[in-house]
Amino acid sequence: MSGSLFSKESIRAWSVGLNLVVSTFVGLAIGYGLDRLFSTNPWLTIIFLILGIISGFRDLYRFAQRQNNGSDSSDKDK
To answer: What distance in Å separates the CA atoms of residue 23 and residue 40, rounded to the nearest whole number?
Structure first.
């Protein structure tokens, strides 16, 4: 049943994908709110959108590193 839709690996992969989207929209929302507050359109929206995208890809990179390290150690055991 390791190939099921609700295995640990698939749930982790879904959470990484969801985190990529959520962090992008959170960055966008924060930037938009600050732009409205300080009347600095569109600079803070752009800056926080980029920060949100970077945050999402950073999490994706960390997930890929964990997967790579985990598969290396299991291959050595065989």
So the answer is: 22
Both tokens of 25, joined, read 């929209």
Residue at token pair 């997967």: 67
| Predicted TM-score (pTM) of this structure | 0.78
Q: How do the domains of the chain map onto residue ranges? A: 20-64
The whole-angstrom separation of Cα 31 and Cα 18 is: 20
Contact yes or no for 26/45 (Cβ under 8 A): no
Residue 75: per-residue pLDDT: 47
Q: For 43-59, what is each residue's pLDDT tens digit?
A: 999 999 999 999 999 99
